Amino acid sequence: MAFLEWDEKYSVGIEEIDQQHKRLFDLINKLYGTVQKVNGANDLQSSIIELSAILAAVDKMEDYASYHFSTEENYMLEYSYPDYKAHKKAHDLFFESVRKFKREIDEGKGFKLTDILEYLKKWLTGHVLTTDQKYRKFFKKKGLS
Questions:
Q1: What is the pLDDT of residues 12-50, one digit of tens each?
Q2: Checking phi first, is residue 71 left (phi over 0); if not, alpha (psi -120 to 50) or beta?
Q3: Which pLDDT value is given to residue 57?
Q4: Residue by residue, what is the 3-state secondary structure of 15-40?
Q5: Which candidate among 97, 100, 109, 115 keeps its CA 20 to 30 Å from the CA of 122?
Q6: Which residues lie below 8 Å from residue 31, measured CB to CB, with a gap of 6+?
Q7: Reduced to 3 states, what is the DSSP secondary structure of residue 11?
Q8: Which fold does the domain 22-139 belong to in CATH?
Q9: Which parts of the chain fold into alpha helices (H)?
């Protein structure tokens, strides 16, 4: 069973964005798999290698999130979505949090790797179910699907 499972309740009715959301779910699941390897590492060298893999996985997820957020924001600007600024702010806050986690990993501060995963899971599912769902009807009326 995956850490984060796609369900149709997450669909926003725009195929391109739904596919991107599914990809974000997949990237978070891959990060989960990497974290599981770190938790199972027997020696320091393995842990260091796996922590590098975690940073790489977080970077990949962050890069894809940037691509995805640009897609959403471009549609919002193109169709004059009235809640654009608030939505963009939510995206910006997400990046601030991810960068904070990355700094903590890099600096070796005491934290649980599962905290990153729980944050990503909670943020993504909450964002898609609330903030993203707000634009569903708006874009549907504009003919975007």
A1: 999 999 999 999 999 999 988 888 776 665 544 555 566
A2: alpha
A3: 87
A4: HHHHHHHHHHHHHHHHHHHHHHHHHC
A5: 109
A6: 54, 57, 58, 61, 116, 117, 120
A7: coil
A8: Four Helix Bundle (Hemerythrin (Met), subunit A) (1.20.120)
A9: 15-39, 44-78, 84-107, 113-126, 133-141
Give me the long-range contacts of 31-36 (CB less than 8 A, separation at least 24).
Answer: 31/57, 31/58, 31/61, 31/116, 31/117, 31/120, 32/2, 32/3, 32/4, 32/117, 35/113, 35/114, 35/116, 35/117
Q: What is the pLDDT of residues 49-73, one digit of tens each?
A: 667 788 888 899 999 999 999 999 9
Residue at token pair 């003919």: 143
Domain extents for the chain? 22-139
Residue pair 51/38 in contact (Cβ under 8 Å)? The answer is yes
Q: Which residue has the tokens 């004059």?
A: 80
Question: What contacts 17, CB < 8 A, 6 or more positions away?
Answer: 68, 71, 72, 75, 132
